[in-house]
Amino acid sequence: MRIALFGTGGMASALGGQWTRHDLTVSGRSPAGAAALAAELGAEAADWADAAARADAILLAVPTTALEALLTPLDLAGKILIDCTNTPGATGEPVAARIAEYAPRASVVKAFNLAHVDVWRMTPPLFEGRPLGVPLCGAPDAVAVATELVQDLGCTPLPAGGLERAALLEAAAGLAIGLWFDGLDARSMLMGS
């Protein structure tokens, strides 16, 4: 699969590092940062438009405030956009729904937003001997692509419905992140203590 990593921070590095069997391209606001991450991953660096043109799927790992300006000028027809972003404390329209508006001819899937970046560096992410479950919300074609990428990590894909359900994942992330910042173990609400 041809994957473009949009962003050069922790999520792009962690997930990209698990997907090196694929053809990776890295784009970022800083060409030097994109080149550095590309070298780390054995990938190519390219500008946003070139990376999008080459890609089957694009991981969106940039600040949510940058998404509209980044996506609207690009030709994303037929592309799978994987939204791993979170905006804790945000209200209003979910990020995944806004992405679908910015790129109406692409397919969007919300994925990889519930775990800390360090979890995505684990090979594989196991907890008490069980693989991490990764909820996926989006169009069936986007979920199918994300399913393969979840399995590449050694995780269990959890198809959770259409893109309209992405708001639930974003709200769950906001709740869990808030609990973690307060020093509480958010896992205990699902698995017991």
SSE diagram, text form:
Elements: E1 2-6, H1 10-18, E2 23-27, H2 31-41, E3 44-45, H3 48-54, E4 57-60, H4 67-71, E5 80-83, H5 95-102, E6 107-110, E7 126-127, E8 130-131, E9 133-138, H6 140-152, E10 156-159, H7 166-181, H8 188-191
Describe, in plain words, how this protein is organized in 3D.
This protein is an alpha/beta fold and 193 residues long. It has helices at residues 10-18, 31-41, 48-54, 67-71, 95-102, 140-152, 166-181, 188-191; strands spanning 2-6, 23-27, 44-45, 57-60, 80-83, 107-110, 126-127, 130-131, 133-138, 156-159. The longest helix is centred in the last third of the chain and has 16 residues, at 166-181.
Integer-rounded radius of gyration: 16 Å
Mean pLDDT: 92
Helix percent reads 25-40%
What string gives the helices and strands in order? EHEHEHEHEHEEEEHEHH
The strand count comes to: 10
How are strands sequenced across the largest beta sheet?
A: 3-2-1-4-5-6-9-10
Indicate the proportion of strand residues: 15-25%
Class by alpha and beta content:
alpha/beta
InterPro entries: NAD(P)-bd_dom_sf, P5C_Rdtase_cat_N, STEAP_metalloreductase
Protein name: NADPH-dependent F420 reductase
Domain Pyrroline-5-carboxylate reductase catalytic N-terminal: 2-86
Keywords: Oxidoreductase
Summarize this structure briefly:
With 193 residues, the protein is an alpha/beta fold. It contains eight helices and ten strands. The strands form two sheets. It has an eight-stranded mixed sheet, with helices on both faces.
